[in-house]
C-alpha cells in the first residue's frame, strides 16, 4: 500500500513536469444547468483517463446498473472509458448514505466532492447518485471528445464541493405523441436528453383527435383504426381531407411490450412515465374506432391535420354507460402497465354543445340532478376518478376539470395561466404548473419570420423568469411544473429537439434550482457552453434568443416607429430599408425608435456580437409590423 502511494506521488510529479500547462490552468470553469444549490469551487483538477477506477462503496444491483450507465455515458460524451474496481484510492467513489439521519439533500439530492486525487459522490438514493453523475458529466470540457482524442489523452475536471437537491419533486416535460407519432427509440433519446437537466417526469399525451398511441389488448380496434390516418405533408391545419377510399398509412402506436421497455429505460434514469388519455373531448381517434360512443354517433376518421369547417363531435357521450365500461377496460390495462401513481385523463377544451342536445346526456343530467353541462363534465371526471381509484391510481387533469366542481382527490395541471392552479391549491389540491405563456414549447420562441406557423409566443426569458409558486399560494400544494410540447406543427424528432432546447434548459432551472439563485446573464453564459455540448452530441436547439425583437410603437393614426432590442445583452443590431443584407458596416441601432423612410416597405435586421453575425437575419414587411401594433403581451 505504502509503495503504491509513493508511486502515485511519483506519477503526479511526472505529470507536473510533462504538463505544466494543464496544472497552470488552475480553476477550471464550471458551467452547470440547472444551477446547483451550493457550489464551492476550489483550486486544482482531477484528471480522467482510462486508468481511473470507479469504486462502488455500497453493494447492490441498482447502484451497479447506474454505475454501468455512467461508464457508458462517460465514454459517449468524453471518449474516456473507466473500469469498475472493487477497491482503490484515486478514483471515483459512489456511496449511498445509509447511516444516521438523512441530511438536507433528501430523496433526489447528492453531495459531490472533487479533489485532485478522488471524486466522491454520495446520496440517499439511486436517484441522487444519478443526478450527481449528470452534474459530473457537465464538469467535463464542452468539447471533451475532441480534447481527449488529441495529444493529451487526459481530461481535467475542476476541484469543487457541491451540495445539491431539487426545489420541486415534479419536474416534467410533456411530449404529444398523438399529433405526431414518435418511435420508441426517439422517446428513449428524448429521455436521455431531458435527464441531463434533471427532469424526472415524461408525460406522454397518448391520445387525441389525431391518433391513439397505446395498445389496449381488450380493445384492438383502438389501435387498428385509431392509430392511423391519411398521410399529409405541408402546413398543418391546411391539409386536404381524406379522399374516398384513401388508405390510412400514417401513424403508429406502442405495443404494451414496447411501452414496458420505455418505462424500464426511464426508470433506470429516474424518470416516471405519466400516461395521458385525453377524455371526454379530444377523443376522435377513440370515436373513429367506436363511433357509438359520441353523442351524434356519426362515423369519423382520425384527423390528419385538416381544417374542418364543421365541428367534429370529438367528445364522449356522458349519458352512455358503454363509455364508462370502455374507460374501465382502458384504465385497467394502463394501471397494470404504468407504475406511475397518477393517470392523466386530459379533460381540456371540451365543446359541450353536443351534450346539451343529446337525449342520453340530458337524461343523465336529470337523473343525477346536474344543473348544467359543466356539472355534467364534473360528473364524468368524478366517475373516472372512482375508476382510477379502484385500480390504485390517482387522477390528474387539465384545469378545466375545475369546471362544475373538482373531483375530491384530483390533482390539477394548470395550463390556462396560473389561475386554475391557484384555485385548486386554495382548495388544498395538488397542482402541477404549466401555464401556456411560460411553459408551452410549441410556441414561437422569438421573431416569427421563417418559423413554422404557431399560435403564440414564449421566449426563453419568459420561461426563465417565471415562477410556479404565486405569492398567494401555499408552496406545499405546488408539486412542480412542466414544459409541454404539443406536436401539431412538430412533424419530426429534429423539430422536437429544436422546440425543446433551450427553453427546457431555462425551465429546468425554474424547477430544480433555488429561486434566489436565478440570474439571467449567468444562465446565458452557461447556456452557450451547453450549446457547444449540444453541437458535439448532434442535438438540435433554437438560437432564437440571439435574434432581434422588433416592437412597433404607434405614433399617430396608422404611423408607427420601431424599437429594437435583444434578449441576450451585448449584441449589436444593424439594419437596412433597401432590401440588401445588413452587416456591421450598416447603420447600427442606437436605442432610439426608428421610422420607415418614405417609400420603404421592408426592414432587414441582423444582430452581431464582437464583430461577427450571431442572430438570424430578419426580413419584415412594414405591413406585418403594423399588424402587430395591437398585440398586447408579446411583441412579435
Ligand atoms: C391544452 O393545452 N389544451 C391542455
Ligand atoms: Zn350524449
Supply the key terms.
25 strands; 8-stranded parallel β-barrel; single chain; 636 residues; Immunoglobulin-like; disordered N terminus; Chitobiase, domain 2; binds zinc ion; alpha/beta; binds acetamide; 7-stranded mixed β-sheet
Spatial strand arrangement across the major sheet = 8-9-14-15-16-17-18-19
Could you describe the largest sheet, including whether it forms a barrel? Answer: 8 strands, parallel, barrel
Estimate percent helicity: 25-40%
Q: How many structurally independent domains?
A: 3
- Give the tally of β-strands: 25
Can you tell me the CATH topology of the largest domain? TIM Barrel
The portion of residues forming beta strands comes to: 15-25%
Question: Which structural category do the helix and sheet elements fall into?
Answer: alpha/beta
Taking all Cα atoms into account, the compactness measure Rg is 27 Å
Q: Which architecture name of the largest domain does CATH use?
A: Alpha-Beta Barrel
Low-confidence regions: 1-24
Cofactors, ions and other ligands in the entry: acetamide, zinc ion
Number of alpha- plus pi-helical segments: 20
CATH class of the largest domain: Alpha Beta
Amino acid at each position: 500500500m505504502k509503495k503504491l502511494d509513493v508511486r502515485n506521488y511519483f506519477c503526479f510529479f511526472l505529470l507536473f513536469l510533462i504538463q505544466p500547462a494543464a496544472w497552470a490552468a488552475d480553476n477550471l470553469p464550471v458551467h452547470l444547468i440547472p444551477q446547483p444549490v451550493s457550489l464551492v469551487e476550489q483550486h486544482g483538477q482531477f484528471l480522467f483517463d482510462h486508468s481511473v477506477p470507479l469504486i462502488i462503496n455500497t453493494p447492490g444491483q441498482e447502484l451497479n446498473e447506474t454505475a454501468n450507465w455512467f461508464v457508458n455515458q462517460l465514454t459517449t460524451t468524453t471518449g474516456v472509458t473507466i473500469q469498475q474496481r472493487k477497491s482503490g484510492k484515486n478514483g471515483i467513489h459512489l456511496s449511498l448514505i445509509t447511516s444516521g439521519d438523512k441530511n438536507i439533500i433528501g430523496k433526489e439530492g447528492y453531495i459531490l466532492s472533487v479533489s485532485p486525487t478522488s471524486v466522491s459522490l454520495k446520496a440517499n438514493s439511486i436517484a441522487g447518485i444519478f443526478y450527481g453523475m449528470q452534474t459530473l458529466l457537465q464538469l467535463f470540457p464542452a468539447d471533451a471528445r475532441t480534447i481527449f482524442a488529441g495529444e493529451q489523452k487526459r481530461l481535467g475536471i475542476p476541484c469543487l464541493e457541491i451540495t445539491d437537491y431539487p426545489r420541486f419533486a415534479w419536474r416534467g416535460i410533456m411530449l404529444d405523441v398523438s399529433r405526431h407519432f414518435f418511435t420508441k427509440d426517439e422517446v428513449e433519446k428524448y429521455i436521455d436528453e431531458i435527464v441531463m437537466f434533471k427532469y424526472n417526469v415524461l408525460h406522454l399525451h397518448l391520445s387525441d383527435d389525431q391518433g391513439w398511441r397505446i395498445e389496449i389488448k381488450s380493445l384492438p380496434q383502438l389501435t387498428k383504426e385509431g392509430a392511423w390516418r391519411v398521410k399529409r405533408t405541408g402546413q398543418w391545419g391546411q391539409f386536404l381531407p381524406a379522399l374516398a377510399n384513401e388508405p390510412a398509412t400514417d401513424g403508429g402506436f406502442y405495443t404494451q411490450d414496447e411501452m414496458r421497455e420505455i418505462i424500464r429505460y426511464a426508470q433506470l434514469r429516474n424518470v416516471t412515465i405519466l400516461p395521458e388519455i385525453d377524455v371526454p373531448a379530444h377523443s376522435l381517434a377513440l370515436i373513429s374506432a367506436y363511433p357509438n360512443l359520441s353523442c351524434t354517433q356519426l362515423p369519423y376518421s382520425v384527423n390528419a391535420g385538416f381544417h374542418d369547417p364543421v365541428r367534429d363531435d370529438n367528445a364522449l357521450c356522458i349519458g352512455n354507460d358503454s363509455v364508462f365500461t370502455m374507460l374501465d377496460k382502458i384504465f385497467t390495462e394502463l394501471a397494470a402497465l404504468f407504475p406511475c401513481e397518477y393517470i392523466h385523463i386530459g379533460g381540456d377544451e371540451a365543446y359541450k354543445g353536443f351534450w346539451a342536445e343529446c337525449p342520453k346526456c340530458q337524461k343523465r343530467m336529470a337523473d343525477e340532478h346536474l344543473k348544467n353541462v359543466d356539472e355534467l363534465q364534473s360528473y364524468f371526471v368524478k366517475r373516472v376518478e372512482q375508476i382510477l381509484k379502484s385500480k390504485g391510481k390517482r387522477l390528474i387533469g387539465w384545469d378545466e376539470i375545475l369546471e362544475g366542481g373538482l373531483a375530491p382527490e384530483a390533482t390539477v395541471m394548470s395550463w390556462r395561466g396560473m389561475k386554475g392552479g391557484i384555485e385548486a391549491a386554495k382548495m388544498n389540491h395538488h397542482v402541477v404548473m404549466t401555464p401556456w405563456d411560460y411553459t408551452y414549447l410549441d410556441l414561437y420562441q422569438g421573431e416569427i419570420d421563417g418559423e413554422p406557423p404557431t399560435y403564440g409566443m414564449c421566449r426563453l426569458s419568459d420561461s426563465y423568469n417565471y415562477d410556479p409558486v404565486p405569492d398567494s399560494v401555499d408552496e406545499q400544494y405546488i408539486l412542480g411544473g412542466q414544459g409541454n410540447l404539443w406536436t401539431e406543427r412538430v412533424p419530426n424528432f429534429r423539430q422536437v429537439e429544436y422546440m425543446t432546447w433551450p427553453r427546457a434548459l431555462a425551465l429546468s432551472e425554474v424547477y430544480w434550482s433555488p429561486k434566489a439563485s436565478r440570474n439571467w446573464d449567468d444562465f446565458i453564459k452557461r447556456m452557450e457552453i451547453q450549446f457547444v455540448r449540444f453541437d458535439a452530441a448532434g442535438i438540435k436547439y433554437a438560437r432564437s434568443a440571439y435574434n432581434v425583437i422588433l416592437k412597433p410603437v404607434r405614433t399617430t393614426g396608422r404611423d408607427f416607429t420601431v424599437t429594437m432590442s435583444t434578449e441576450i445583452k451585448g449584441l449589436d443590431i444593424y439594419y437596412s430599408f433597401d432590401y440588401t443584407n445588413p452587416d456591421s458596416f450598416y447603420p447600427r441601432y442606437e436605442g432610439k425608435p426608428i421610422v420607415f423612410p418614405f417609400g420603404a416597405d421592408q426592414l432587414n435586421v441582423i444582430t452581431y456580437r464582437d464583430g461577427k453575425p450571431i442572430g438570424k437575419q430578419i426580413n419584415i414587411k412594414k405591413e406585418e409590423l403594423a399588424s402587430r401594433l395591437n398585440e398586447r403581451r408579446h411583441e412579435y
